[in-house]
Amino acid sequence: MTTQEVANRLIQLCRNGEFIKAEQEFYGPNIVHVEANGEEYKGFEVVLLKEKEFLEKLEKKPVVKVSEPIVTNDFFTIGMHMEFIHKELGSKIIDEIIVYKVNKGKIVYLKCYF
Question: Less packed terminus of the chain by CB within 10 Å, N or C?
């Protein structure tokens, strides 16, 4: 898959709230995920577990809006807006930019910016 194809499919899955499926489909085995606060997660299983734990703490399906991607070579970026109620953190609205690096059809790196 090209970077554009990965971006398009990832956006489709995220817009449908299918975050786990998106990670299973596109995250590489050695993915590095860097949060906006600098916290870093390495490896597919670690990143997937982080996402599952986050989603389990939501009271209901979040409201998600995802921009169209900007793609260049092996990178793409999206804007993501999420509204949710977290069992520990309460009501939250998050607007972030996420930059992804793709290698051979798999996402190998992502960095979030608030």
Answer: C
- Reduced to 3 states (helix: H, G, I; strand: E, B; else coil), residue 2 is coil
pTM (global) more than 0.85? yes
Query: What is the pLDDT at residue 67?
Result: 98
Q: Is 107 left (phi over 0), alpha (psi -120 to 50) or beta?
A: beta
Residue 29 burial by CB count (10 A; 0-12/13-18/19+): exposed, middle or buried? Answer: exposed
What tokens were used for 17?
A: 């709230």
User: How many CA atoms within 13 Å lie on the side-chain side of 72?
Assistant: 3
List the beta bridge partners of residue 66: 80
Residue 45: which residues within 8 A CB-CB, separation 6 or more? none
CB 102 within 8 A of CB 6: yes
Residue 54, token pair as written in the block: 């986050």
Task: Share the mean pLDDT of the chain.
Answer: 96
For 39, other C-beta atoms within 10 Å of its C-beta total 10
* pLDDT at res. 18: 95
